[in-house]
Amino acid sequence: MAVVGIDPGLKGAVAVLGDQVDVIDMPTRGKEIDGLSLAAYLSRVSPGLAVVEKVHSMPKQGVRSTFTFGKGVGVVLGVLQALKIPWVEVSPQAWQKAVLWGVPGEGKARSLLWARKIFPGVPLETPRGRKLDGRADALALAWYGVSEEIDIC
């Protein structure tokens, strides 16, 4: 069974662990998540489970950006529901504790270090050197889904 990890957000990503490893940046259209492209991708990879990072607003985050972010998460969950893909939402603290145990560092750098070690063939930087931490987080979320015993209702 393929498991998909989803780091929601415009700079997030979608990672699939199954017979093969595949990672894409979150499909967007302008400054919104492109639900049609996301649905087409998920239909192609046909996961049995999606693990979505459970997100919330952050202190000092503006009202507009909070609303936009929440709307994007709603698109992701709506696509999963429409495609009848079971999902669980997992807090960053839970998946980081389970997956990144023993990895030095903090924050996004820690996820990138872990992903480089476990998935050396997956591009985690743009050609200009910008770190693609959404990909690392999506891979870790999918890994969490594969390694943890998750009941699918």
UniProtKB/TrEMBL annotation:
InterPro entries reported in the protein's UniProt record: MOC1-like, RNaseH-like_sf, RNaseH_sf
Source organism superkingdom: Bacteria
Annotated protein name in UniProt: Holliday junction resolvase RuvC
GO MF entries: crossover junction DNA endonuclease activity; nucleic acid binding
Xref: PANTHER family: HOLLIDAY JUNCTION RESOLVASE MOC1, CHLOROPLASTIC-RELATED
Gene source species: Dethiosulfovibrio peptidovorans DSM 11002
